[in-house]
Amino acid sequence: MEIAVDPIRAVEPAWAPAARQNLALLDQICQVVEGPFHLIHPATFAENLAAFQTVLRAKNVAGAVYFGKKANKAGAWLREVARLDGSVDVASVPEFVHVLANGIRGERIGVTGAAKNDELLWLAARHDALVAIDALDELERAIQIAHDTGRLRVLLRVLPPRAPNSRFGFNEADLANALRRCAKAGDCLAMEGFSFHLDGYAVAPRAELAAQLIEQCRQARSHGLPASAISIGGGFACAYVAEEDWRAAAAALQADQFHAGETFAQFYPYFQTPTGAAMLADILETAFEGRTLASLLSEAQIQLFLEPGRALLDGAGMSIFPVQGFKRNDAHGIVTVAGLSMSLSEQWKNSEFLPAPFLIERGPAQPRTPIRAAIGGSSCMEYDVLTWRKIVFPAPPRHGDLIVYPNTAGYQMDKNESEFHQLPLPPKIVISQQADEFTWRIDR
């Protein structure tokens, strides 16, 4: 007998069940959209951002939380950043312009990414944005542009010792040359400190490298450079499922649980701790010879910058795909939904979004006959599969039902979306709530 509950159940924020169980709301949206769509909830994003900002204040650390815009393209997040006097991290001219258009002042914009083009550097200089530089040739172009515009604020990105093969960041020798070049550049260039980004979600390596860079800031100051900030990048963890569910499921994942025996290189760790703002608190509380990182930063008068994307979007969105058809395939079923797997980006990294989607039944009542089923997209490609894992559904999905993927705002919704087959991209629907009443609009 099949079990009626999927073993990898998503942990949802309070707003999410209320929204997905509101059939009148979803019917309204379906009538307008006529295809897949993403629900986004800016209030949850605002709560996440405020929690990070609260930790900085509680630890008496000056600094800024930069929303990593690449994690989601919606404009609604930017209005919340502006309201909370936050900051945004961008990596292209269109991102920069979009941020400005949503009320973020230039000095609250950080510019990262590989080898910024001259237009982006010029725009950053004009608007007093902060640019992370990680190569000597990029630094020379930045200085030339700064001479024409008056001033450019920069951080020097450091190659992490634990990632010597990364293509980002100055190695030790180039960093020394970059510091000398910044000092020689004069007033047109303000070298405000250092930055780094680490893969993974561990607390200790971030705290350790930040502590090391405090001394680097002191040395840079001895050369007349401001050096008053350190950016520790992103990589703030999220927990999508409960610990008990994740540990049991992760240990038992086998190829026969996936359609066609599909295998994957790795999965995101869907349960982690600490997460979000609690992880920032742990970084700041890390002690070095009895002194916390927070106290070391405060005493050295160094600001701490961070660039979370996924962690600010945790719990702030879900993706909804209408069911177009269902058929049985041996012992399990295959659901075909309107839309493409490119709107659920984990599949395009040789991985799988494991938290179980929900079935919303919109037809007449049917017998409770639990079934396992994979979920495919509506293209003609065999590999267009949203979920290879055989999900436990309480009943066979039918045409017109909805499949709801939880917690997809961070990197899932639009990282790899495509208008393949000339299908329109799923719109983002902004959800607002007062008591039990929901309103919605299409994000612009």
TrEMBL record:
Keywords: Pyridoxal phosphate. Residues 52-246 form the Orn/DAP/Arg decarboxylase 2 N-terminal domain. Gene3D superfamilies: Alanine racemase (3.20.20.10), Lyase, Ornithine Decarboxylase, Chain A, domain 1 (2.40.37.10). GO terms for biological process: lysine biosynthetic process via diaminopimelate. InterPro entries: Ala_racemase/Decarboxylase_C, De-COase2_N, PLP-binding_barrel. The keyword Transferase does not apply. The keyword Cell division does not apply. Its cofactor is pyridoxal 5'-phosphate. GO terms for molecular function: diaminopimelate decarboxylase activity. PANTHER family: DIAMINOPIMELATE DECARBOXYLASE (PTHR43727), GROUP IV DECARBOXYLASE (PTHR43727:SF2). This is Amino acid decarboxylase. It comes from Xaviernesmea rhizosphaerae.
